[in-house]
Amino acid sequence: MESGISFVDEFAWAEKGECRQLARAGLYTPQEMATIFHPGQGEDFALAKAICRNCPVQSECLSYAITHNERLGIWGGASGVERRRFYRKQYLQELRDAGIYVPGSPPGEVRRKSEAS
Ligand code: SF4
Fold first, then answer.
1. What average pLDDT score do residues 38-48 get?
2. Residue whose CA is closest, atom 2 of ligand 1?
């Protein structure tokens, strides 16, 4: 069953992205943009993060990357490692919300299910 939302609709926010504006203005070539937003391992992504900080659709971009489990590159000002930290925190919170004991939880926050009753 189709959701009725096309890829184009789902990605419409990207047109307003600061990265797109800079590319359109000719400040960076497409290849430079790719290198800035997809740096190699150990390379600097400070410029990408600085560009994202000025972006009017930063939250949409980050939300898209998280929803679609984008693992590589800078999205919404966050690197793949930073997004994975977010997934981990989110997953641990879901476990706590379900009443599942998570080692390292603040004392009294979540009890083992067997302790809850
Ligand atoms: S948040 Fe960054 S990567 Fe996302 S659209 Fe804006 S400038 Fe581009």
1. 88
2. 52
